[in-house]
Write a structure and sequence with these properties.
This protein is an all-alpha fold and 270 residues long. It has a domain of 120 residues. The protein is built from 6 helices and no strands. It is rod-shaped. Pfam families: DUF2046.
Length: 270
């Protein structure tokens, strides 16, 4: 019985100890639960605060990015408009330059065609003038040759008549010196060399002189013949000194030597 009482007492003691121990553990666990709950609340508050901070920060960043985006969009639109205006200006300017170049090209082509026509006309005119020049030169040479030959024949006839007069005077015993005519008047080195650029005036003057020389000896006496000779010599000498143009070199081409040897000096020397 004692053993049972002792066991009961020990059971009661153990039960109280277990109860105390349970109470202690329950209190300890409750404290821990309270602490954990408090830590949980603190963590939740901190997390909420951090979330709010992060959200605010991200919201500000998003707002800043949105502002920058809007600014960039405005700048983009402005640059696009500016670029479009510049492109339009450049296109208009290039179009004007192209139109101007096209008009200049057309005008230059017209001027080129006109110049080509002018050159062709000038070439044709030059050819025509060259042909006319050749024809005129040939015609002038023929006229000059005809006039020179005619005057040469008349001069030869006059010199022949002068020689005939001189021989008749010598038969009568009269010399040119007795008539007051020096031989230099008839054999002067400055006998008229008949030719000029207007052969008609020269030939007219020589025709008058030669007509006096030819008609004088046939109808006049010794005194009239001497006067005719003296006047003819003076007239021819004066005209020869005024013109001083060769009779046999009037043509643009050289005369033959046979014609050059028929000068008045050579004929009188014969």
């Amino acid at each position: 019985m004692k053993r049972l009482d002792q066991l009961k007492k020990e059971k009661a003691v153990l039960a109280s100890e277990v109860a105390q121990e349970e109470e202690f553990l329950a209190n300890t666990l409750q404290k821990r639960l309270d602490k954990l709950a408090k830590e949980k609340v603190d963590l939740e508050n901190r997390l909420e605060a951090e979330q709010e901070y992060v959200v605010n920060k991200l919201r500000k960043a998003i707002e800043q990015l949105s502002v920058e985006k809007n600014k960039l969009m405005c700048e983009k639109v402005e640059l696009e408009n500016q670029l479009e205006c510049e492109q339009e200006y450049i296109l208009n300017r290039l179009q004007k330059q192209v139109d101007k170049l096209a008009s200049d090209k057309v005008s230059l082509q017209k001027e080129k065609a006109e110049l080509q026509r002018t050159v062709a006309d000038l070439g044709a005119s030059v050819d025509k003038l060259n042909k006319d020049k050749v024809n005129l030169e040939n015609q002038m040479e023929m006229e000059e040759e005809s006039i020179t030959n005619r005057l040469q024949r008349r001069l030869e006839a006059a010199v022949s008549n002068l020689r005939l007069i001189e021989s008749k005077l010598e038969v009568k015993g009269i010399t040119l010196k007795d008539l007051g005519i020096a031989s230099s008047d008839l054999q002067h080195t400055e006998w008229p060399r008949i030719y000029s650029r207007s052969p008609s005036s020269t030939s007219g003057h020589i025709d008058r002189v030669l007509s006096g020389l030819v008609s004088g000896p046939l109808s006049a006496s010794g005194t009239s013949a001497s006067g005719t000779l003296h006047s003819a010599g003076v007239a021819l000498q004066a005209h020869g000194s005024a013109t001083a143009v060769p009779i046999l070199t009037g043509s643009r081409r050289e005369r033959p030597l046979s014609a050059q040897s028929n000068t008045p000096e050579a004929l009188l020397a014969k």
